[in-house]
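Slide 14.
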Amino acid sequence: MEWVGPLKGNSKAMVMQCLQCGLLRTCMPRWKTRCHACLDERTRTAELGFELAPAGRGSVQITPEIEDYLALFDRYRDQLPEEIRQICVVAKVSAKLGHRMNWYYASMFSAAMMVQQRMDEFRHPDWEIFATDVKGLPWFGVTGTESHGTIGKHLRCGNYQKMGRECQFCPPDPGSRTDRAMRDRPYLLYLVWFDGFFKFGIGQPARVHTHRRQGARVIRVLRGIHQDVKAAEKRLKERFKNLPPSPLMDTTFLPRSFGIGEKRTEVVPDLYALELNLDEVLRDAEDVTVRYLPRPLGSDVPPA
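Slide 15: predicted structure.
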């Protein structure tokens, strides 16, 4: 494997190229790695490609998965290294004629197309997908979702980067709701209470109103910029992450806005009320609690 780079903009992952077949893959800096497709003495035989290289006198099986591989090859053949492209041509002919392939090349074909499947998940008109990482190859196929990431080139600015929701070098798109786009926008940190339990959280005004409509009492609402509010919530979560077990998960009387079952988070028994000091974790914020308290009809207090 040989390092490819440096790539403009990319600093969080390395791209390596196999000197034997030319296939690219991502890896963490200073890690040792191997090709996704090429086999060696550590690789078990017949783990991949058994449909095109059946054991004994078995017949070639054109499964839906193999059909998808062949379709991916037809779609992206010009983007594949020459060595992989030749193997894919042999696989396509073998599948069409029903001839058994050599297991070595059948395995390489399957592994290379699994890589293309992962890259295909990220394809977008504004991006050129460059390299990815798939856990499990070339031994057993895809064995998990963990990955060193997928590297793409944003065609508008030419920067290579890990694929995410948007380019990290260009200005956020209008209407974007990523943390980067919202970092300087107003956001709320709130604390509500219902029948012995507090719920803290963050969000827009509609979120607080939802808790109130479902019967919760609004205790405190602070407004700050998005990045500070997110950091304050993180500090609160750290404070309460090691709470001892409680009957909380067995309760059914809490509002649905508090969460359901194991998904119920940021919910704290009122035994810990003194530790729920929002002003301590979000300093210099604006107190807008009054906007969410019950008020008589005709009140002129403006909405948030």
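Speaker note: Helices lie at 64-76, 82-97, 103-120, 179-182, 205-213, 226-240, 278-281.
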